[in-house]
Amino acid sequence: MEKTTSFSIHEGKPIRCKAAISRKPGEALVIEEIHVDPPQAFEVRIKILCTSLCHTDVTFSKLDSGPLARFPRILGHEAVGVVESIGGHVDGFQRGDVVLPVFHPHCEECRDCKSSKSNWCARFADDFLSNTRRYGMTSRFKDSMGEDIYHFLFVSSFSEYTVVDIAHLVKISPEMPVDKAALLSCGVSTGVGAAWKVADVEEGSTIAVFGLGAVGLAVAEGARLRGAGKIIGVDLNPDKFELGKKFGITDFINPALCGEKKISEVIKEMTGVGVDYSFECVGLHSLLTEAFNSTRTGSGKTVVLGIEKDLTPISLGSFDLFRGRHVCGSMFGGLKPKLDIPILVEHYLKKELNLDSFITHELKFEEINKAFDLLVQGKSLRCVLWMDK
Ligand code: NAD
Ligand code: ZN
Fold it and tell me: What is the CA radius of gyration of the chain?
């Protein structure tokens, strides 16, 4: 890591480095040499130390239609890096700082950023289409032929260097091990935040988590830390139950073994009245209905975390809603990145939050396609890809 001098030899100039490029939907990523432009005003160029893979990267690597399907693109949005150089009007960051790039913006100035009711940054959060936050489709990446490469979720961490807007950047304690820190840039924060902020799970409550990937297991971990009673995990992969016990899963349902019964019926039998909170962490329309039907009348709450590829409308019983059951979605688990990530870091450093068990695999960056296979095959929770090893 070039951390010793007060300025980078590349400052103000493009950097040549390696990136894994998603060139066509459904195809393996290709490691290529690219150019990364210097940061403009309100931007920071960072050297990625390590990145992990979230299911959202898999979804977008396969997306073959609609405005969000863009190729060639540099995916990746769960990472940690070190500041290499800064653009104008950047306060609070300097070269050498360890930072998390986060896909969800936090401008700290808009009405929503100032309110405790929402983490939906009114200034920036609606825009998923631009490459760069304040410069629209302007890209900071070019391939060796000089062609622009698309950014992804304002992070693009599958590159040795990337340019990130300060609304998407959080400085973290240098005491934090960087691989554990990377998990907080998407999946684990999303799950823990959903349990703490969106559902506000209380001691003794009952929970059902649909989908035991890193997001679902982070929901369980958040609920465990809040002292939840029963935490029911639902997954087609039986290996996830043993793994889930480390994050507080107390009971397991494999939908393939439910026979004629619906998952919601099994959950109602297990709990008597249904669970207090259910969380959809797969991104399947049918599971969302089951998650909703699993909650108790009067106060049950379903939190939608999984991203449905086709964004299909949902149909829920109006009488069930009328009788006091809630459904809500959340981006980044309702967390405000600059405010809440340092709190999660503290919980980890105090040995309360279990981050270690989420890292099931580690590989070199060049082996990124193996990391995709591991996630798709359900063998990994999070695979950390190291840039310099
Ligand atoms: P993952 O691939 O690690 O986990 C998904 C799990 O769902 C796997 O264990 C799989 O076996 C299970 N599953 C698949 N089909 C199932 C079915 N029919 N019934 C029961 N279980 C089933 O994924 P992840 O990285 O944990 O991400 C989970 C979801 O959350 C994805 O849709 C991702 O895009 C989304 N996500 C949302 C946010 C947000 O801010 N809302 C953030 C990160 C990820
Ligand atoms: Zn993610």
Answer: 21
Using N-to-C axis directions, what is the helix angle for 263-271 and 285-293, rounded to 10°? 20
CA–CA separation, 39 and 352 (whole Å): 37
For 191, phi then psi, to 5°, come to -70, -50
**55 CA distance to ligand 2 centroid (A)?**
7
Q: Other CB atoms closer than 10 Å to residue 174's CB: what's the count?
A: 11
Question: Measured from the CB, is residue 187 less than 6 Å from ligand 1?
Answer: yes
Cα of 66 from ligand 2 centre, angstroms: 20
Which residues is 44 bridged to in the sheet? 86, 164
Whether residue 204 contacts residue 264, with contact meaning beta carbons closer than 8 Å, is answered with: no
> What is the pLDDT, as a whole number, of residue 3?
44
Please give the angle made by the CA atoms of 219, 222 and 225, to the nearest 5 degrees. Answer: 150
- Our answer on whether the CB atom of 283 is closer than 6 Å to any ligand 1 atom is yes
Ligand located closest to 303 CA: 1
Q: How confident is the model at residue 212 (pLDDT cuts 50, 70, 90)?
A: very high
**Residue 153: Cβ within 10 Å count:** 20
Which tokens is 305 given? 């975390």
Please report the pLDDT score of residue 277 as a whole number.
Answer: 98
* Residues with CB in 5 Å of ion ligand 2: 54, 56, 186
The average pLDDT across 24-35 equals 98
The number of the ligand nearest the C-alpha atom of 256 reads 1
pLDDT of residue 7: 67
Report whether the peptide linkage leading into residue 72 is cis, meaning its omega lies within 30 degrees of zero: yes
Structure confidence by residue, pLDDT tens digits, 285-304: 999 999 999 999 999 999 99
